[in-house]
Write a structure and sequence with these properties.
This protein is mainly β. It has one domain: Thrombin, subunit H, CATH 2.40.10.190. The protein is 0% helix and 52% strand. It contains no helices and 6 strands. It has a 6-stranded antiparallel barrel with strand order 1-2-5-4-3-6. It is globular. The termini are close together. The model has no long low-confidence stretch (mean pLDDT 95).
Length: 86
């Protein structure tokens, strides 16, 4: 399953670069995100390096989820595709 990185998880004056908002393909409701909790996400850089994280919780009610990484994700990742694996 694939998804799109939408943004960092952020507040009014801060942003958390190790937490990103992901919109999975084919998911449009909060209830559908429960099957994705705990799954791994993999983002691949242009150089081929793979950064992995896990889906931790839903965000809002339109099917967006929060993925956490150990280190921050670069700004070039926003708007790109991410792979959701089990």
């Amino acid at each position: 399953m694939n998804g799109t990185i939408m943004s960092y998880r952020r507040a009014r004056r801060t942003q958390t670069t190790n937490q990103i908002l992901v919109k999975p393909e084919g998911v449009s409701k909060k209830e559908e995100t429960t099957k994705l909790m705990g799954k791994r996400v993999v983002w691949t850089t242009k150089a081929g390096k793979k950064l992995t994280g896990t889906i931790s919780k839903p965000h809002g009610r339109n099917g967006v989820v929060v993925a956490r990484f150990l280190k921050g994700i670069p700004g070039q990742a926003i708007g790109t595709k991410i792979e959701i694996v089990s």
